[in-house]
Fold these 4 entries.
Entry 1:
Amino acid sequence: MTAPLVELRGVSKSYRRGGQRVPVLAGIDLDIPAGEFLALMGPSGSGKSTLLNLIAGLDQPDTGTIRVGGLDITGLEEGELARWRAEHVGFVFQFYYLIPVLTAFENVELPLLLAPLSRRERREHAALALHLVGLDDRADHYPRQLSGGQQQRVAIARALVVDPLLVVADEPTGDLDRVSAGEVLDLLTRLNGELGKTVVMVTHDPRAGRRARKVQYLDKGVLSDAPEDPSA
Amino acid sequence: MLLKILLRNAARHRLRTALTVAGTVVAILAFVLLQTVVDAWYAGVAASSAHRLVTRNAISLIFPLPIHYRDRIRQVEGVTTLSYGNWFGGYYQDPKNFFVNLAMEPASYLALYPEYQLSAEERAAFLQDRRGAIVGRKLSERFGWKVGDTVPLKGTVFPGDWPVTIRGVYRGRDRNTDETQLFFHWDYLNETLRATDPRRVDQVGIYVAGLARPEGAAAAAAAIDALFASSAAETLTESEQAFLLGFVAMSETILVATRVVALVVIATLLAVVGNTMAMSVRERLSEYAVLKTLGFGTGRIALSILGESVLITLVGGVLGLALAFPVTGRFAAVVGGLFPNFAVEPRTVLEALGTAVLVGLAAAVLPARQAVRVGIAEALGRVG
């Protein structure tokens, strides 16, 4: 049996608010095999985004270990963690978070600045990523010149351009209309199905959840299998 | 790419950036102007020679010394040349037309001051004509004087009309040399006084002694003052530099105030640029969080903020410097007589550029610190 790509053991996290510690996650155990498309669902404040942050190396747990691709990322210093993220994780956010002073092409090229690539290689990779999301003709457009759905597709291109082990998406359809949301979910499904990328997605949207191969439900810091009907 | 982000971020809020650049232009212009005023004040000191001693009355420069001290000072070991004369304090047409004019013993004075350069013909004509005078190039240009013109000087220290004929226009040997002075014969002054004010005859304001070796200055000064100790007119002999610094010291308060104003201008600039950068960074915290998310280290993020700030202040600094030259030129034309060498020094240019860079860096330190310390989850609203 092969080891999971992502392996969480006894992960707890709490935040300090107003002088009090508020527990968010309590002793989470989770295995995510390579090639999985996992949706994390649950009510607001249930700890979904916190769990995603920990899996993606954006935050550190209070206790427990997180291994991704065999590497214990809980032992990494901030600089090492930043380098690890740059090489192995692609990010898609609810509000896209493109750099407004860069064109679509430059936004996609941005993460490659940290990779040991020539300028020509960077440009080839960025062009390919934009092509995969169907935005070749929008390469020179700035984010303000793109629709929400197009911006999110650029963000997906930026996430996959480094050929990551893992793509994390936090409410990727939360700011989009139905059609655009469908296009973005199609893309994430293709990333997973055709390119074999492991995708972990936080969502409130049951339609988005249905696109995932597996759904886990998080409530009051405890992870459980999703109900048979996630919309319930 | 980071350079691209830096440049485009600087141009993002054009009005804000333009106003900050404009503030920097004004501040650097003011800094250069004030620094040039201070430099101009010390210009005479900078042009002083270690080979010259100045002897005056120990009580005050206002009190004269007898002319017969001349022969005894000449005997002092190390003194090779001796000149003497009086501050004349005359004006041309209007008392507001200030310029330095001295009645000096001409041959010895020109020997002591080789930096005042005259043609052999002009020199001979000046020495031959007791009512002759020489003027600096800038002074002749200021009043349109030519060789052969008679200038009706009005005396203040020595009241009355004192017509002198211009026999030569001297040029400075280097840019520190004062070209705004007028010199005429001490004999002309003395002989005229013999008829008009006999009580003031045969008295001089200063002696200027030329030395063979600058190292002997202290001993020669002590020897000169020892000659006249306990006399009715004791002397104070000091290096030319110390003598001129004494004049500068009279204006010390103004100079200190000028320097304080220059510092206040720079501190204000720091606050203006700091405010601009703080606003810019605060607006872009989520973008810096994204860069951190993508793996960009704190160094690159800080560098982009510091670079943007330095770019703004450097552009303002260069524009301010570009404006400083015509402005100081105009200023020099207005206050010509007061500051003979009112020009922006290369050192001031470097100081202005250095100040612009340092202000840019200092103004961005706290905003950069805020950006590199931003929590990704908080900045992107991804808690919960």
Note: Chain A has one domain: 6-225.
Entry 2:
Amino acid sequence: MGVSIVPTLKVLKPAARFVVVATVGIVAGYFANAAFFPGTRPEQPIAFSHRIHAGDNEIPCLYCHVQARRSISAGVPSVNKCMGCHLEVAANRPQVRLLANYWENREPISWVKVHDLPDFVHFTHKRHVAAGIECQTCHGPVETMEVVSREAPMKMGLCLDCHRKNEVQHGIDCWTCHK
Amino acid sequence: MANVDRREFLRLVGAGGVGAGAGFMLAESIKHPVEYLIPYPVPPEEFSPGIATWYNSVCGMCPAGCGISVRTREGRAKKIEGNPLHPVNQGRLCALGQAGLQVLYNPDRLTGPMIQNGERGDDAFVKATWEDGLSRTAERLAAARRDGIYVLSQGVRGHLANLFELFMGELGSDRLLHYDFAHPHPLYAANKRFFGEHQLPYYDIRNTRYLLSFGADYLTNWLSPVHHSLGFGHSRQGNDSSSNDGVRGRFVQIEPRMSISGAAADEWIPARPGTEGFLALGIAHHIVADGRYAGDDASLWRTALAGWSSGRVAGLTGVSEGTISRLAREFARAEPGLAIGGGAAGNHTNGVDTLVAVNALNYLVGNIGKAGGVVFNPDPVTGGSAIDRQANYRTMQNLIENARDGNIDVLIVNNTNPAFTLPRASGFREALAAIPTIVSLSSFMDETTLMADVLLPSHTYLEAWGDDMPQPGVGFPVGAISQPVVAPLYNSRSTGDIILGLVGKLGFNEAIPWTSMEDFLKDGWREIYERGSREPGDFDSFWRDVLVSGVWGENARRGGSVVIAPGVIEGMAVSAPRFSGESGEYPFILHAYLSTAMYDGRGANLPWMQELPDPMTSIVYGTWVEMNPATANEMGLADGDLVRVTSEKGSIEAPVVLFPAIMPDVVAMPIGQGHDALGRYARNRGANPIEILAPETESASGNLATSATRVALVATGRRAAPVKTGGESRQLGRGIVQSTGSRSAPAGHSAKLNSIPIIVESAVVESA
Amino acid sequence: MSILDRFVSGWREFRKDGYYEEFDYAWTMTIDLDRCTGCGACVTACQAENNIPIVGESAIDKGREMQWIRIERYWEGEYPNAKLNFIPMLCQQCDAAPCETVCPVTATYHNQDGLNAQVYNRCIGTRSCAVYCPYTVRYFNFTDHHWDAPLEQQLNPDVTVREKGVMEKCTFCVQRIRQAKDHAKDDGRRRVRDGEVQPACVQSCPSEAMIFGDRKDASSRVSKSMNDERAYRVLGELNTRPSVIYLKKVDADAD
């Protein structure tokens, strides 16, 4: 045939540079987003510090996150749980006053979820706590965190590695988590 | 690299920047949106997040009164199951019962009191407060004539029925009516006439060996369908060799159009509509004439039944003489056999006569008071007055006339919809215009509620306190408390609380001192508790036990001998059925039937019920006319042709569906669609066959004879093929449903194609 | 061994007769056609339990209905001797499932409980599995689904809500099986007892036509029921080895 792509390429050649630079830009922008704005350390409505509570004061995780042992979701403590201490303890600190405000209005606190799994993953805290896995295994050294940040990648590889290593019964059956 | 001048460089930087921006936004767009973890300020005691809480209650979807267990998560109802401890349904539940969740969470619920701001029947309601709504209603009630106050409610039992009675008593009015379209008035009347019984008996299908059903669709909507299904299943295959000598129950269904019960039956016998009573008498004649009845009054029976030979009956019914005598033989030999009646047979102009004849059959085979037969029920522990309040068509006609004559000042409607379930010929909708004040307690904007002036919406049954003593009973007293399984969604109130609110406004507090339905209920149950010989102080644990188990019962069965009312035998007769319309002009008899999904129309606003394919035709979302294929052929009608169905009283349109199991001169239509209100899923869909029914009534009971209307069918020339989920309706040799010739398959009977051995896998895996 | 030999021996290993005897549980269901009345309680119970969407009239008209269990009805004969037979049809959880062989991404496979597992997040929507299934029990989500508020409050949190583009089918209520195993573990490592787990359809059936259990437990109700003389498998000649076994309807008047 007498048709060739070469003339088209010749016409486009000057734009080649732009295409290359733009592509490099797209890739750079994408990863820059992931690097600088990973969303792993969101700002919370109250500047609650796990370092003070779980670290310095050595309050056990399950004291506040009561449901973790009995339910699929660990939950966060209800406002009255916090007030159990903070009605008296450190009542003058500004953050605690914020908390007291919520309590007086009986308003729930909208904590931003840090460890979020997709809806099609049915993770159950009960079984993992019952298996004796430390919270820090997936949640990282929470007792040292001023602001909770997501240390683990929360991807399926994390789950599978652990399930394989510990030879969990039916651990790699898809329906164990993706029912 | 080639020369890059400044302009070029800037352009490249721009391209890179735009690219970076695009890449950044791309990454941003695929990020999971932020989610929040929101704890309670004070966690509720009733549940833990992530763990289900179960509540036992009572189903309110039909009058059977099954016990339910509702699974809730975080205060939301997720799934309704049957309560295993409740003797009516024993852990099972029908499709309509499952759909109760869609009543609770229906998008078209009335969310709070409203007042009509336009003309009657306009959709111009404006929001109001309870104070306002109750005050207005109380004002009108106080100003009304005593006899001008009418309360029209769905059938209620238990303590709510008592509360209604107290309220009416204080109002000084006796005009309390319970109106349910499907209430078996002729059955009550027949039991009254034959046995002198006020209650319906318990029909022990479970233990029968031969069920002869005259039109009663006992598996779908006759009395207590889940209980009957349990009994059916057991009678069929529950009797193994270790009990009841392994006899498989036989089921015979006599009706002009095969119902679900007809499909389940071993034998479906079409008899001319309205002649089922003759058939019953013919069978009775044979039982006596062939010497199978040896009671003291045998000669009385012989005389009474003399004129009902199989020859005569065959001519009247279209059922052959051979079949009549065979049925008589089989039924009498069954030990026990059980005969029941209802549906089209009961709802005819001779319906009570027919059901009395059916009672005669039970009497003649001696199954009264025995297992597998007719067992009389004790009176319900409370709320028994409700039976007498049930309004039949004649009562409703009186109401309509009174409205027209200006005798009604206030009409209070509670969750019943006569504007839909009464024929147009009754004039109900028009009569409402003459009533100055109409107040509706209904949870939904149905056709009747649309005509109200004040709306005081009630909770759905899953949000309200109440109780139920099922009727008919199961042979011994049973009661269950209906408790809220979720906090009320909207600004509605329970029916009982609305009545008590009116009590407060009207100053009836001395006679009716309770301020909440829960208190009224608890006090009522205190009385029930004290019936037994228990420590008075322990009521609270009793109350808790009844709530937790979901049921209460007493081991108190009716004893005593069976006495039939005097004169019944001598007066045994069935009058000829009357039809509206001449057969020349209206060649078909219209058989309008109830389905599980729609029931009397209440299922139409539940999407699960709209999407539940009709079992016989697999049609969804519509109305249709079932015709015998040969008849359709003669008329040149094909499946999906739109026809006009006309009676003396009106006409509707629906597509034709060819139905192999219907008599040639009968057409059948399901009831339930054809709403012009009741929400988005129900409105403007299908047609309502009740509309065109002729107001023929049965003289003894005043019941509407729903199967006494003749119709004509005319092709419109248009097509409106119904939507079906099922494909080919014949097996074409594929062997999908297989049957075997006896209770167990005889040796060598299985088809060669199916000779794959069935493996029992044991827990021990042997090593190779 | 050559590549071909390795492939063939691997395949034989995968599909050998003994492969499925290593099941942990072997969930089986029997349906007694002599008890089934065609009432449809199972259909609605399943819809409520498994977040089955309402697809609407026009979708059903296109053949896109969404019912993990459906009641099929077959007429026999003509008036006045017409008979109607009902048969509930659901995923048969075939031990030799044709659908499992075709999925290009292994979104469907056989798990250690004898169940045919469908993984929604893995499915790419080729729909070949639905074509391969001889029972037509696989349903595709042709659209994203919407629940008019507040109907979505009823959705079961233990079951994934499926999006457009994935196949779905009956799972024998795997969420209930998982929960039963969870409770068994709470009680100290015991096996799930017979009758402890019932799929929604089995639990609701008013005529008790359905029995569910573990056929590896020889004393379970389902083990006895599946060895009834009337037992058969639908389209058994195709050798799909279904885990749903039907009991023949009894025609009392047949010779």
Note: DSSP finds eight helices and eleven strands in chain C.
Entry 3:
Amino acid sequence: MKLESLTNSIGEWLRGTGPESDIVMSSRVRLARNVPHFPFVSRATEQDRAEIERFLRERIAAAPVGHGLEYIDVGRLEEVDRQFLVERQLISREHADAQGARSVAIDQSEQVSLMINEEDHLRIQCIHSGLDLRGVWEQIKGVDEQIEKVVPFAFHPQFGYLTACPTNVGTGIRVSVMLHLPALVITRQIDKVFRSLHKISLAVRGLYGEGSQAMGDFYQISNQTTLGKSEEQLVEQVGDVVPVLIDYERRAREFLVRETEQNVHDQVSRAYGILKTAQTISAEETMQLLSRVRMGVLLGLIGDLKLADINSLLVRTQPAHLQKIRGLELDTKDRNIERARYLRQHFESGGASPN
Amino acid sequence: MKCQQCDKQAVFHITELETGQVRELHLCEEHARSYLNQAEAGGGGPDEAEAGGGTLGVGQTADELAALDQKACEMCGITFFEFRNQGRLGCPHDYVQFARELEPLIANIHGATEHVGRRPSAPPAAATEGTEELTGVIGLRRQMRESIACEHYEQAKDHRDAIRTIEERWLLPPHTA
């Protein structure tokens, strides 16, 4: 099955390549679309949902983009498998926790994912490693155009693409970048930065989207409005602020090295030490410590680790990934023990991911 | 976020300043209504307050709001009250049915009311009547189910035929589209 093969890779957004990938983890765009002849998902009957799912799956299969896609029936997955897809950012938490007929179609590279029966009938998502909003937009536009030839989308001359929630109406676009900002957190400048982002209508969220707490200094910046500006303008709105944030974070990192090198070196070394020797460790603590170690590698304070390695650990130590890798269902306590063992083995073997 | 007094979604977030203390309240439409009425009536019980009316929206009386809340979509049947409670619309036709009510809300969210981005290039979405006619299927399907429930099979058949006519016009199979 497809999920098992995914366990051995790390997915597009954690490849750790692409422009500015020391700070920008990934660039993502999603489009919300609905068909006009069914109620929106929250008001659809069980039968409606099954018909929407079948209608979209069959139509998309007829588009060129449909050929390379793998379909996963999310409604029939075990909870751990749904969680696994959330951790890889291929589906949203809402999609995982929803009821009724729903599915996701994923391309080989894990760049494109199509969620059927999320909040809207169709959510098209495209994700690239590093800073590449232009590239992501061009790719998703192509996918949207192809699907539009085979699927009628609900559209209104004044309000644009119609969505279940008025907050997405118009373009239906959400443009986001995920940033790693540990130095701005340590130097306590992060709140100030976020306040100024809110002033220019940008939203800040944690690693796993809507309502999620920021974990391990990873933050998603995205547009808040979807109507009254073109898709290109909204891509630019998010894109324009990224170099500024990168600059702030770089300067904060330089400041830390210049003014408090011993302190920072001590912090990242301790973080590394705990990861290498702990006997039991939670997902949150792991994320926090990996974040510090990641910064240490980028500042040249830890020499024997690769960026892609740390990125891989970020996802492989998540609860569902850990259980898939070990092939066991584990409760929280056992997961913490297993996670610590996994980390120790990983570092002992010099970075090769143990299975 | 859930209402502090029931399981519905909280849509009113109220911050009360009381003698130097800050109290936060997260309530659904219904409980916010009775809470605010209560506050206005000077601390009377919620039942008294309900009877006394009171205002919620800016410049709208409770009666006007109640009338608006009862307004329902002729396709999916959702009332404006249900939409305000859940924050999710029922079907694409709601944007036509509730256009006047939604416009100020949309202006508030986006600071704009006109879409300026991409437009679909392929029918039927490119044609507005395509979307409008197809949303008609939602209403017809609902009527068909009701007819079947009442054992009015002739009527149900008519609804089914009407659905087929619309679908045949707008939903060509992909290879012939």
Note: Residues 40-57 of chain B have pLDDT under 50 and may be disordered.
Entry 4:
Amino acid sequence: MSFRKYLVLAGVSLFSAVGDSLLARGMKETGSISLHDLSSIFLVVLHPGIALGIFFLFAFFACYLTALSWADLTYVLPATSLSYVLLTLVARFWLHEHVSLSRWLGVLLISLGVGFVTQGPALTHKARTAESHSSAEQVATEARQ
Amino acid sequence: MSQIYAWCAVLLIVLTSTAGDVLLSRAMKQVGHVGQLWRSRGLFVVIGRTLGNPSFLLGVAAMATAFYSLLFGLSWGDMSLVVPASASLTFVASAVAAKLFLHERVDRRRWLAAVLVAVGVVLLAG
């Protein structure tokens, strides 16, 4: 795994955590959307926090797709679950929320899972197209190093 | 009774988001290594190939269905049940689906990672 690939994986975790929190905060500020006035669903994107949240979720999706182009799904999903850990750390040290012992245990288990999966190779199967075939081998070699 | 509805929503979310993840993963393997393709052919080729890939479009449709199932699930059931249950079961379900449909070699390390993350997500919601 090259440094650039770790950056992409970090981007997946970071952008989804930031995007989700911006959306959650923005939706709480705008209040609940009623089913009788669906136009508010479209107007809600004008809220700066929500617009920024959507921008970050697009960035998340781009990084996620990039990671999937050179790594297994069973590698990318656990590796990027660090976003849950990030959200907890933000809640504790930035928003000064109380984080219970069981939540810290959850953080520990997720971190362990991420540690386990990133110890192994990123790609384990042969890709189908010729072009990605050569890159798949390259990734496998990189992972072994 | 509302518990049954909530679990039905969880099941629907897990199935659709797992399908979405598998389809997106397959699509991106067909598109090829994004970084290399970008350098050799340019960003527009990457975007064009991705958006033109049938698996990608199906995957996005599945993800959108999962998103709306989540919205419905939240109106039927308790948020503290629906969100962590669906998120954590999706990790395990996608490991099974990746083995079955993407032929990934899910060794003991990866099963362990999927289960640890799944349990961790449940604990985080507590």
Note: Residues 3-144 of chain A form one domain.
